[in-house]
Amino acid sequence: MSRLTIEASTPLCLLQDAGRFGVRHLGVTQGGAADWCSMSWANWLLGNNLDAAVIEITLGGFAVVAAEDCLLALAGADLGAQIDGQPLAPWRSFKLGKGQKLLFTQPLLGARAYLAAPGGFDAPKVLGSRATVVREELGGLDGMGLPLAKGAALSYRGEAVLLREVPLALRPDLKANAPLDLVLGAQIGQFSGQSLFDVFNTTWAVDSRADRMGIRLLGSALHYQGQPMISEGIPLGAVQVPPDGQPIVLLNDRQTIGGYPRLGALTPLALARLAQCLPGDRVRFTPVMQERAWQTHLNYLKSYL
Amino acid sequence: MNPRIEVVALDCLMLRLFDEIAEANMPWMLAASERLRALFGEQLIDLVPSYTTLMVHYDLTALSPSQARELIAEALIDLSPNARKAGQCHVLPVWYDLSVGPELSLLAERSGLALEEVIRRHSGREYQVFALGFAPGFAFMGLVEEILAAPRLNTPRKKVAAGSVGIAERQTAAYPVVSPGGWNLIGRTPAKLFDRHRDGYSLMQPGDTVRFEAVSHAEFINLGGDDTPLEARA
Asked: Hey, what domains does chain B have and what are their CATH numbers?
């Protein structure tokens, strides 16, 4: 049943879920919400499975009109959302009455907002997921990997629940500039001493060359001194260093294997924060051990209980 | 073999088995793959094999990093090459022609061989599928004869037709869908390499073997091939 009609969209507005798993050995990328924390909160607000299909709106330019009374939820970036001109802050569920228009104008804080519906938005599962990967022509409303387009109808089957907000203490702080946790990888010792110092003691600027495959960072050039690598599997959040010495953090739509040396990989929590950064934002890295990062992650997952 | 277990991410470990690309690695890689899948069971999220490595992405809510490491170590005990249960063998029909494989002439020139000889040599060998990557169903195969090896194009094409068969260094591959690409193209296969409706999705899986079979233009068309000539170099 159609409940919402898309009035405006951009190629950066995509249906996403947690991503596609069990198919990486076939060269199929992960996909899924770039900020998984905010996607999970949007679903949490409605009592959905945390990985139910949501709409990822990057930077704004998206609008829907309700075909009937709806109860939806919004989390993540503040993209200047308005209901019929009235501001709507994220981290809450809200009513959108029949005929009302929800519009995302421009980024006020963060880059990616997540709009959820009771039970998740309807779409066919393709290779086990509804995540849209345009390059691979997989997922999305029709399963063919298309971005959400003006005129398309959105439907869902869940029942409306009570209105609620994400408690303040649990909301990810998109303003925070705490360093990003980096789990050190096997090639870390093969970068020059100066490079290692620079990685953790200088700031890195988010480049405009940033998409769902990767975010390029600008700063001092890093020098890898090891042997050339044979292509191997690349994890989510990998920080790879191509020959120009400028690191690229790999996101959800990354290629599945690659041969650039890596400093390691951002933790999922750090990656979710980076996914909310805009070009020009500055970030720092801090090293973290795998076991410690794992504990932190498990603790964070408890906040959704 | 020189196995090492390395940290790659919060919930990923790399099992590094070899230091060089070789066809002889494959029975070991297959055996290790099978053992890891069996030992991790439901706790395995993804296993990403490449030429010399297996990346294990496991469920971090079920296993600690040290438990995952122990499972990998266990997979290595008494590991023996799996020659018995080799992968499938595929025959890929290829229409080798300059209109769809413009680098045939370049390879002939580099090697000093006649066009027909380049084709005979490329199709006269059985290749291993080392890894899938770059795009869904894109299989990195090898090794092609040294004399046919050629570096990637300096400027990759913006658009390579689906089914295009190419060579880069000593590897060969076929593009499952239209994509950008820098491999030396020598022909085109009508085979559907990736199909979301097929069981297993990808025609080729790591560990499979592949032979290319030269077919005529008429056979290529009969098999459903699209003979649209490659667009001029971008």
From this structure: 4-76 (3.30.1360.40), 89-222 (2.40.100.10)
Q: Which of B36, B52, B35 is nearest to B44 (CA)?
A: B36
Give the minimum alpha-carbon distance from A108 to chain B in angstroms, rounded to a whole number: 31
Q: Do B60 and A297 touch (CB under 8 A)?
A: yes
ipTM score: 0.96
Say if A271 falls within a structural domain.
yes
B122 and B137 in contact (C-beta within 8 Å)?
no
Task: Supply the pTM of this predicted model.
Answer: 0.94
Judgement on whether residues A158 and A188 belong to the same structural domain of the protein: no
Determine the residue of chain A that is closest to B55 in CA distance: A233
Single residue among A170, A192, A207 that ends a domain in this structure: A170
Are the CB atoms for A84 and A47 separated by under 8 Å?
no
Question: A287: which chain B residues are within 8 Å (Cβ-Cβ)?
Answer: none
A146, A93: one domain: yes
* Minimal Cβ distance to A256: which of B48, B54, B177: B48
Closest CA in chain A for residue B48: A25
| Cα angle for residues A83, A89, A91 (degrees, 5° grid) | 120
pLDDT of residue B232: 52
Across the interface, do B48 and A23 touch by the CB < 8 Å criterion? no
Position A175 scores a pLDDT of 85
- Give the integer Cα–Cα distance in Å for B157 and B163: 15
Regions in chain A scoring below 50 on pLDDT:
none
Q: Does B234 score more than 50 pLDDT?
A: no
Q: Are residues A205 and A299 in the same domain?
A: yes
- Residue A219 domain-assigned? yes
Measure CB to CB from residue A27 to each of B12, B66, B137 and give the nearest one.
B137
Say how far apart CA A71 and CA A86 lie, in whole Å. 16
Tell if the CB–CB gap between B136 and A184 is shorter than 8 Å: no
Report chain B residues whose CB lies below 8 A from the CB of A126. Answer: 196
Look at B131 and A262 and tell me if their CB atoms are within 8 Å. no
Is A119 exposed, middle or buried (CB count within 10 Å of its CB: 0-12, 13-18, 19+)? middle
Same domain, A121 and A160: yes
Residues 6+ apart with CB under 8 A from A255: A29, A213, A234, B133, B134
The domain containing residue A204 runs over which residues? 180-304
Q: Do β-strands A101-104 and A62-66 pair in parallel, antiparallel, or remain unpaired?
A: antiparallel
Give B-chain residues touching A236 at CB under 8 angstroms. 9
With contacts defined as CB-CB under 8 Å, which chain B residues touch A301? 61
The residue among B10, B72, B196 with the most chain A CBs within 10 A of its CB, best to mutate, is B10
**What are B215's two structure tokens?**
């077919």
